[in-house]
Design a protein that fits this description.
Elements lengths: L2 E2 L3 H12 L7 H23 L12 E6 L4 E6 L6 H8 L5 H9 L5 H8 L10 E9 L6 E6 L5 E6 L5 E8 L14 H12 L6 E10 L7 E9 L16 H10 L7 E10 L3 E9 L15 E5 L2 E7 L11 E6 L8 H5 L2 H24 L1 H20 L6 H4 L5 E3 L5 E2 L1 H7 L7 E5 L3 H5 L3 H7 L4 E4 L2 H10 L1 E2 L2 E5 L21 H13 L28 H9 L3
Parallel strand pairs: 2-8, 12-14, 17-18, 17-20
Antiparallel strand pairs: 1-6, 2-3, 3-7, 4-5, 4-7, 5-6, 8-9, 10-11, 11-14, 12-13, 15-16, 15-18, 19-20
Helix pairs in contact: 2-6, 9-10, 10-15
Bound molecules: adenosine-5'-diphosphate and magnesium ion.
């Protein structure tokens, strides 16, 4: 029997996990049970398209057995199992190396919790076990295999016998140390509570033999110890439950269990639609940006279930790009189970659901903006840029959906305000919505161009994000008010409107300006006297559509 090494990355991760003082060791059970449930799902799904396979619900379950004397905890499932190659490739290599990179980058901070919330799955078993044994027989195979590992040193695989298809994971629970107790993972009550906490919605029964004292049959006062198999999970998925039965904590638990993010959700949206299209959904607005959000690896999408069975992990068609930060799941009875990915794209039901979901997200965000302003601003700091990109992309097609969700810093009080708030603050004589672009609020404040507008008592929106001005150009008008850059030639303010500035120039000035224009040829098109300056001697202004800031950005873009 050959001993094999883990891949380098896996080895490092294992070491890190085993050696770290882990605050939530109990999650190993959630991980192993989820894997077992996934394995049963795989058979279920196969049976839908394979006529030779019958899925009889009775035969599919997960069983947890603790043996205090042997110090073992066994998790057995009747799922699809693993052959030799699966054991090698699935348990010998860590799939999500991205989480390792993340952990390394963040080690200095709260590294310890991250692993748990990421769920590195199978490997978490080593937090409580010194030896992990996996005996598995894959569907369609007679030969079973035993995989065994004592941690970072490597693992062995050898042929084994097993009567039924499925997997058995045997954990040799560690001995208690001075500061760490492991005995609890062999205690019935503790296992029961962990399972209830994390795995209550698992759709297959999780069984355990529970001991109790029972009246001996045929007697009236003689008790005996008995052991009875019980189902520990309620199995009803959270999304099928009534909103009123659920607490915030339930939704947060589901978020963590599903690995939607390593943060806490900022807001959840529970939808139970039964109009033109019937579906349930639980959607989350995360609190912070996923670490890979702006990388190529980030994939938007929601989990898609057809009548309770997972058919796709990330269905991108359910979310528009501008809401790509939303996490969650959708379950619909209207979808056919064995629908292919290609067919899904054209599915009318799916399109209806997507449209419906988009409007649910929008109204949830609007109500957060209205009623929970502080929360909304947290959200906006993380994802506002995405909304602005949404306004700009697709030729402004989605501006109506998104414009009311935008916030910009206003010159008054330096607070974030909406376009609607801006317009309702406008004095009657103000014609335009003014904005100024710059690197930062401090820089913008010093711009000479802002003085005249501010002196009139008009508010100015500060655009500090590259995308801001481009997005606004797509909106063009908000409530019939056009946007105007403070650096544009015509500010539409009374004082400088009626008189043509060049006419009032004296001959002397004229000569000077002409000379200056020649000197600055190619840099400016004209030098003229300005009425808008207060404390600054000079400023730049533009006449066209493209402002100075936009020009800078356009010039910086690769051709
Ligand atoms: P993940 O579940 O995120 O894929 P894990 O580390 O939890 O990552 O598991 C790795 C892989 O090992 C799974 O994707 C699956 O292919 C396989 N696996 C783990 N446990 C089982 C099991 N009980 N039955 C069948 N396959 C399993
Ligand atoms: Mg897993």
């Amino acid at each position: 029997m050959e001993k094999k090494q883990f891949q380098a990355e896996s080895k490092r991760l294992l070491e890190m996990m085993i050696n770290s003082i882990y605050t939530q060791k109990e999650i190993f059970l959630r991980e192993l049970i989820s894997n077992a449930s996934d394995a049963i799902d795989k058979i279920y799904y196969k049976a839908l398209t394979d006529d030779t396979l019958v899925f009889d619900k009775e035969n599919y379950f997960i069983k947890v057995t603790a043996n205090k004397d042997a110090r073992t905890l066994t998790i057995r499932d009747t799922g699809i199992g693993m052959n030799q190659e699966d054991l090698e490739s699935h348990l010998g290599v860590i799939a999500k190396s991205g989480s390792l990179a993340f952990k390394k980058d963040n080690e200095a901070q709260e590294g310890h919790n991250i692993i748990g919330q990421f769920g590195v799955g199978f490997y978490s078993a080593f937090m409580v076990a010194d030896t992990v044994t996996v005996i598995s027989r894959a569907l369609g195979n007679h030969q079973a295999y035993k995989w065994e590992s004592t941690g970072a040193e490597g693992y062995t695989i050898e042929p084994w016998t097993k009567d039924e298809v499925g997997t058995e994971i045997i954990l040799n629970i560690k001995e208690n140390t001075e500061d760490e107790s492991y005995d609890e993972y062999l205690e019935e009550y503790r296992l029961r509570s962990i399972i209830k906490k994390y795995s209550d919605f698992i759709r297959y029964p999780i069984k355990m033999d529970v001991s109790s004292r029972k009246l001996k049959e045929g007697t009236e006062d003689v008790y005996e110890d008995a052991s009875e198999e019980q189902q520990l999970n309620s199995m009803v998925p959270i999304w099928r439950k009534n909103k009123s039965e659920l607490t915030n904590e339930d939704y947060e638990k589901f978020y963590a269990e599903k690995h939607y993010g390593f943060d806490k959700p900022l807001k959840h949206i529970h939808v139970s639609a039964d109009g033109a299209v019937v579906y349930q959904a639980i959607l989350y607005v995360p609190e912070s940006m996923p670490f890979d959000y702006y990388s190529k690896e980030y994939e938007k999408g929601l989990e898609l279930y057809a009548n309770g069975v997972l058919i796709m992990n990330k269905c991108g068609d359910l979310l528009p790009d501008y809401f790509s930060f939303v996490k969650g799941m959708v379950d619909s009875e209207s979808l056919s189970l064995n629908i292919s990915r290609e067919m899904l794209q054209h599915d009318r039901q799916l399109k209806l659901i997507a449209k419906n979901i988009q409007s649910k997200i929008k109204s949830a965000l609007l109500s957060m903006l209205k009623d929970e302003r502080e929360q909304y601003e947290t959200f906006y700091k993380a994802f506002g840029r995405q909304l602005k990109f949404g306004v700009y992309s697709d030729y402004g097609m989605n501006k109506d959906v998104l414009q009311d969700l935008l916030l910009f810093t206003s010159s008054k009080e330096k607070k974030l305000i909406t376009l609607d708030e801006y317009v309702s603050n406008m004095p009657e004589d103000q014609k335009y919505i003014y904005y100024a672009s710059g690197e930062s609020n401090e820089r913008i404040e010093k711009l000479p161009q802002t003085e005249m507008v501010s002196d009139k008592g008009y508010e100015i929106l500060y655009f500090t994000d590259d995308i801001d001005e481009f997005a606004i150009k797509m909106i063009m008008k908000y409530k019939d008010k056009e946007f105007k850059s403070v650096s544009s030639g015509d500010l539409g303010i009374e004082q400088d409107e009626n008189k043509d500035e060049s006419e009032s120039e004296s001959a002397e000035q004229k000569e000077l300006f002409e000379h200056m224009t020649t000197l600055l040829a190619g840099k400016v098109s004209k030098v003229k006297a300005s009425k808008r300056l207060r404390s600054h001697p000079v400023c730049l202004s533009t006449d066209g559509e493209v402002t100075i800031e936009m020009e800078k950005i356009l010039n910086a873009m690769p051709n």
